[in-house]
Design a protein that fits this description.
Blueprint lengths: L3 E11 L8 E15 L4 E4 L14 H12 L7 E7 L9 H16 L6 H12 L3 H8 L2 E6 L5 E6 L5 E6 L6 H6 L7 H20 L2 H8 L6 H4 L6 H10 L4 E4 L6 E5 L4 H11 L4 E5 L7 E4 L6
Parallel strand pairs: 3-4
Antiparallel strand pairs: 1-2, 1-11, 2-4, 2-5, 5-6, 7-9, 7-10, 8-9
Helix pairs in contact: 1-2, 2-3, 2-4, 3-4, 6-7
InterPro entries: GHMP_kinase_C_dom (IPR013750), GHMP_kinase_C_sf (IPR036554), GHMP_kinase_N_dom (IPR006204), GHMP_knse_ATP-bd_CS (IPR006203), Homoserine_kinase (IPR000870), Ribosomal_Su5_D2-typ_SF (IPR020568), Ribsml_uS5_D2-typ_fold_subgr (IPR014721)
Catalytic activity: L-homoserine + ATP = O-phospho-L-homoserine + ADP + H(+)
Pathway: Amino-acid biosynthesis; L-threonine biosynthesis; L-threonine from L-aspartate: step 4/5
Length: about 300
């Protein structure tokens, strides 16, 4: 019997300041795939932000789906995939992690792998190299994670943050490899102790839902933002303007160049209007925490 599925995967922000490579947050901005089995591979991009031409063998979802099937000694059957995305590429909103999670799910469905949620977190995090964006796309909500030397992910998962988020998306792209290239190889001990303390306080404040402290420690990173700020359009101006207009705190979204502010939900519309006036060269989007992670709906196929 032929089958057809709708797969939705939330995008994500990572780090929230000092939670480097370990804190992720699913956002209500989505990658959506309609998948059906057929005789040959076909991937169709429906969104204007997705490339019109590409080589199938280089497509991330194709590569991840075939690699995931092979991991379990299965042959990936050809699929037709229609793809839409609200996630701009190379902007720090987890577009690659969402595609990885989607590719794993395509293989899971097409090959009947019966992967558990833990399997999906492990595989996606191993491919990404760290668990922040990957676990947020698998689970939704807020994730605080660690991955051991065997690639096994341990996650604290929080779903009820009572706040909204605003993303500031510039026109420029920033590849993660470039953003990592400006980071120091080493830190001295006292600097590292303070950086780790700030990360610990951010995680504790998130668990306690102490929003004033969350905002304070979002802006207290020492491990990456001081070095990446030079690559980010209007970094200081956005941090200062957001704070002056009621944000709890502002940080880079992942490696950037997008920035993200955490705000009280009741100021959302006015906050966005003000930021639009101040930063007309940025695309500014009000969003919420994604309540769930990757989701699959089977679509009935009507026989003619």
């Amino acid at each position: 019997m032929s089958k057809k599925w709708q797969i939705t995967v939330p995008g994500s922000t990572a780090n929230l300041g000092p939670g480097f490579d370990s804190i992720g947050l699913g956002l209500s901005l989505y990658l959506s795939l309609t998948v059906s089995l057929q005789d040959k591979w076909e991937i169709i991009h429906l969104s204007s932000g997705l490339p019109k031409t590409f080589n199938l063998e280089d497509h991330l979802i194709y590569k991840i789906a075939t690699a995931t099937a092979a991991r379990f000694n299965m042959q990936m059957p050809p699929c037709r995939i229609e793809m839409e995305s609200e996630l701009p590429f190379a902007r720090g909103l987890g577009s690659s992690a969402a595609a990885i999670v989607a590719g794993i799910e395509v293989a899971n469905l097409a090959c009947n792998l019966n992967l558990s949620v833990q399997d999906k977190c492990n595989i996606s995090s191993q491919i990404e190299g760290h668990p922040d964006n990957a676990t947020a796309s698998v689970l939704g909500g807020l994730t605080i994670s660690a991955m051991d030397e065997n690639g096994v992910v341990d996650t604290i998962h929080i779903t009820d943050l009572d706040s909204s988020f605003v993303v500031f998306i510039p026109e420029v792209e920033l590849k993660t490899s470039e953003a990592r290239g400006v980071l120091p190889e080493t830190f001295d001990r006292q600097y590292s102790v303070l950086g780790s303390a700030n990360a610990n306080m951010l995680a504790a404040a998130l668990v306690a839902k102490d929003y004033a402290r969350i905002g304070r420690y979002m802006e207290a990173d020492l491990f990456h933002e001081p070095f990446r700020a030079q690559l980010i359009p209007q970094y200081d101006a956005i941090v200062n303007a957001a704070k002056a207009n009621g944000a709890f705190g502002t940080a880079l979204s992942g490696a950037g160049p997008t920035m993200i502010s955490m705000i009280p939900s009741n100021i959302g519309s006015q906050f966005v209007r003000t930021m639009d006036e101040l930063f007309p060269l940025h695309k500014i989007i009000l969003t919420k925490v994604a309540p769930t992670g990757v989701n699959v709906t089977e679509i009935p196929i009507v026989s003619k």
